[in-house]
Amino acid sequence: MSLVAGTYVNVRVAREVSPYGYFLNDGESDVLLHYTEIVGERPQPGDDIEVFLFYDTEDRIAATMKKPLITLGEVARLAVADVHPRIGAFLEMGLGRQLLLPMSEQPEMKELRPIPGDEVFVKLTHDKIGRLVAKIAFEEDLAELAFRAPESWRNTWVDGWVTKPLKMGSFVLIDGGVVGFGAMGLIPADDRTRQLRLGERVSARVTYVREDGRVNLSMTLRKEAGRVEDSDKLLAFLRERPGGAMPYSDETPADIIKQKFGISKSAFKRAIGKLMREGLVTQQGSWTKLVEADASASEASETKAESSDKTE
Asked: What angle do helix axes 223-240 and 254-261 make, rounded to 10 degrees?
């Protein structure tokens, strides 16, 4: 039997060597179980025990009685504990030590890389010299474990984690809760309110349940509710602006609207249209103005004119 990091093995306690711990034997090789890696009562020479194998800080194969959150070849969602700008992200794996997710496995754009607290779906594998390392779980890895989303999810809000951030959209694995591993979904770029990081937890609305059981998602409200929320936000923005005016209108490019307000241009136009129908705003070229601000300016102008006439 060969000792392979990332796996469980049944071994016999061969001998105790103080102050280190116990040497275990699989019939061919010895491996150290350090005192700090013992869970429960100390084993005795001659006992048969199950241990998990890993590489210690000196790159030596070692054993632990602790239970990891992931084993070799498995897929699991692990929390990001720390990041290094050149090496990669370090993930909690349940052993009191961390698992490296190399920079080569992460998005090229720094803004899309995970940060501490994010949770990333990874597969446990080996590097070139056999040490444990994490790799991003591929779509096919996740698909084998995911379940089909029910039709009843449509127009409900769900939570999930970003598994692949792309320009065209963000792939998400929806939290399965007690139902199972999760369901697969996509937030198209037009339905995002901002860019999303790998491993970021996100809330989104199910807009469509596909025949294959995957779903389309949106970070925005339905048009009817969204129009009210967006118009309220734009109205509040205008009321805080000098003169109740802003240099944004139906003529403003979509990317600027998205960057400034976090909504699509169509959502912006719907919200402005609602405010115009209610007589709250008006548009002049590339500017949108509060009607009440225009009225106040007009009244101020008339008052000034009357005062001037009386003076004369």
From this structure: 80
Q: Which residue has the tokens 């912006």?
A: 268
Q: What does the alpha-carbon distance between residue 81 and residue 104 come to, in Å, rounded to a whole number?
A: 18
CA-closest candidate to residue 63, choices 14, 102, 100: 14
Q: What is the mean pLDDT of residues 162-189?
A: 93
Higher pLDDT, 186 or 257: 186
Higher pLDDT, 28 or 92: 92
CA distances from 309 to 20, 110, 297, 312 (A): 100, 64, 18, 5
ω into 85 cis (within 30 of 0): no
Q: Is the Cβ–Cβ distance between 213 and 198 less than 8 Å?
A: no
Q: Residue 149 burial (CB < 10 Å; 0-12/13-18/19+)?
A: buried
Mean pLDDT of 207-215: 95
In what side-by-side order are the strands of the sheet with 245-246? Answer: 245-246, 287-290, 281-284
Query: What is the dihedral sign for C-alpha 187, 188, 194, 200?
Result: positive
Domains and CATH numbers, the chain: 8-64 (2.40.50.140), 75-137 (2.40.50.140), 151-218 (2.40.50.140), 223-294 (1.10.10.10)
The residue count for the chain: 312
